[in-house]
Known about the structure:
By secondary structure, the chain is α/β, with parallel strands linked by helices. Helix content is 25%, strand content 34%. Helix 3 links the parallel strand 7 (102-108) and strand 8 (128-135).
Amino acid sequence: MNNYEILSKANIAPQVTRFEIYVPKIARKRQAGQFVIIRTWEGGERIPLTIADANPEKGTITLISQSVGKTTFELANMQVGQCLKDIAGPLGTPTHIEKLGTVICIGGGVGTAPLYPITQAMKKAGNHIITILGARSKDLFILEKEMRNVSDEMIIATDDGSYGEKGFVTTALQKLIDDGRQINQVIAIGPTIMMKMVSLLTKNYNIPTVVSLNT
């Protein structure tokens, strides 16, 4: 196998593609919350992508890309067996992981991709994980099975009611608070407005909250 070779590729939602890429050094070193910067070809732009998962034994990392611009469309058109030009990483400060008690992990749309490795690490640290996943409609969810595997409880919410509970992730979070559940930390990654509304809600109850401020 060549470095940066695409070993598998799958479309997991409209305009969202998952890649498994052979990069042994990064697979061994990466920690939850870190990312890589990739180039698809020599003259291509550099784009950052969160490391959604890694398999040190196989020497692979998992990247999830939403096709929204020139380079992400180029990436989505690459095939198994092709190699990326280069991958730099792992980069960024790893997410602080510790045993806190009950941690609520909230993912919105493709925000579930960077949320997954953090949830995985929080579960491994011994926390009770309650996951809330939200999207506009059923077809926009990604990594639901993977998130279920690292969660003790799972709540699904859709804007249109096509899957799970009808409503926003903040509705589900408010219900947990109203039920008197012990919440030691909230981690929310997704659209900016979603993270803002989660933060405003948890601020009212002094619940420590972490969101992603990456543009």
